[in-house]
């Protein structure tokens, strides 16, 4: 409480000093205008410090993992101060792509073949200038999975690459089929439930750099795919650790949330059009098996999945696909240290669908919940051009896993 009062007093003191020096008091020749502004600002600051800025909730299935995170990742215990002028969920979600900087990253592209004849695009950031890990054969490596229509050029991916570069690590970005400019060689794309391409990528990366420790980070649908992969493979997974951001844990609940009027207008229709544009780019090969004109008439993500995704991957119904795509059912089988960051106000992943009970029963999994942050938002600072709260969680957890791997032994 002392800290809160101190923050509030400093805020109002600085604000008062600013207005006394910068704002002309002239409302009907009195100081009423200044008083109103100061009063509103003080009330807003009080509301922000009491109701918006809060420490995240950390839920872990085992004491050892919980203590590891407390000791090695102090960010999980620190108050998250969302950007004070855009802390609301939808605003954070919409603004992040526009206000955050896009660090320049020079990738090395590699195309690999899948068993069905398709091709997968990987973008490598080798970090050959790494001072802390100069040996390219043993340099720690992070596999990054973007969101639904994302590529290696998304701002959140570029920031994770930048954080990895600063730590001396290598990155490789797994671009889903057909999204990063390469041609589709077979009439197949991707979905959150199917992890075959991810298995191919992980096996290829591990063969290529067999002496280097490997961990993975997934964002939104990339996090869902990664969690589904971990749940299916269990003890067969040889990743050192996994971090997942803004995953949709229950697809039924997430879809229902996005179909509410405002969220349908702001997000659902736009994402549906992005998915349709991706399909249309590859119409020549896809129309050999699917009714693309029917797909292009979909108005929501659910309709798109009913007409395209669930059919492509052979599900009897869209409900069967959504059930299989929901990672909440596979948390209990995860055998790798996995930290999951979600915001309680994420309209893509409603907080009542978070896998709290499943996490409590698995000593390998931890769930970090912030009060605010939206979907892949987590903006902080006055003008959030650079690092976000999500970036700080990524940096600290990645470093903790690679530099303190022995501390994670025996979580079971």
Report on this model:
The chain has 15 helices and 9 strands. The chain has 412 residues and is of the alpha/beta class. It folds into 3 domains: 2-52, no CATH class; 57-250 and 326-408, Rossmann fold, CATH 3.40.50.1820; 251-324, no CATH class. α1 runs antiparallel to α2, α5 (155-167) packs parallel to α15 (389-403) and α12 (301-312) crosses α13 (318-325). It is globular, with a radius of gyration of 23 Å. The two termini are 38 Å apart. The relative contact order is 0.16. It comes from Sinocyclocheilus grahami (Dianchi golden-line fish). It is a single-pass type II membrane protein. It is an enzyme of class 3 (hydrolase). One of its GO terms (biological process) is medium-chain fatty acid biosynthetic process.
């Amino acid at each position: 409480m002392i800290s809160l009062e101190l923050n509030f007093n400093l805020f109002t003191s600085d604000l008062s000093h600013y207005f006394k020096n910068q704002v002309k008091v002239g409302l009907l020749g009195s100081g009423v205008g200044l008083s109103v502004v100061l009063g509103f600002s003080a009330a807003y600051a009080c509301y922000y410090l009491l109701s918006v800025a809060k420490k995240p909730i950390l839920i872990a299935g085992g004491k050892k993992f919980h203590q590891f995170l407390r000791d090695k990742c102090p960010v999980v215990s620190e108050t998250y101060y969302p950007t004070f002028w855009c802390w609301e969920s939808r605003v954070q979600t919409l603004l992040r792509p526009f206000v955050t900087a896009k660090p320049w990253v020079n990738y090395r592209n590699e195309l690999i073949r899948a068993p069905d004849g398709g091709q997968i695009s990987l973008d490598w950031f080798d970090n050959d200038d790494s001072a802390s890990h100069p040996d390219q054969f043993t340099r720690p490596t992070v596999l990054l999975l973007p969101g639904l229509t994302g590529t290696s050029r998304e701002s959140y991916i570029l920031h994770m690459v930048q954080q990895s570069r600063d730590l001396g690590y290598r990155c490789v970005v797994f671009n889903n089929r057909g999204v990063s400019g390469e041609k589709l060689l077979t009439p197949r794309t991707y979905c959150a439930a199917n992890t075959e391409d991810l298995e191919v990528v992980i096996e290829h990366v591990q063969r290529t750099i067999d002496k280097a420790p490997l961990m993975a980070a997934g964002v939104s649908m990339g996090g869902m795919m990664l969690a589904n992969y971990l749940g299916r493979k269990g003890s067969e997974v040889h990743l050192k650790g996994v971090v997942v951001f803004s995953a949709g844990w229950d697809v039924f609940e997430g879809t229902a949330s996005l179909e509410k009027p405002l969220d349908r207008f702001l997000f659902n229709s736009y994402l549906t059009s992005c998915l349709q544009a991706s399909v249309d780019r590859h119409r020549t090969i896809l129309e050999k098996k699917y009714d693309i004109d029917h797909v292009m008439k979909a108005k929501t993500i659910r309709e798109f999945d009913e007409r395209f995704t669930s059919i492509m991957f052979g599900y009897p119904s869209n409900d069967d696909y959504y059930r299989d795509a929901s990672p909440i059912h596979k948390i209990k089988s995860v055998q790798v240290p996995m930290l999951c960051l979600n915001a309680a106000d994420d309209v893509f992943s409603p907080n009542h669908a978070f896998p709290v009970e499943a996490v409590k029963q698995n000593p390998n999994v931890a769930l970090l919940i912030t009060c605010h942050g939206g979907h892949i938002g987590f903006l902080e600072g006055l003008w959030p051009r650079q690092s976000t709260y999500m970036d700080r969680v990524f940096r600290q957890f990645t470093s903790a896993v690679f530099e303190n791997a022995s501390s994670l032994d025996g979580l079971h």
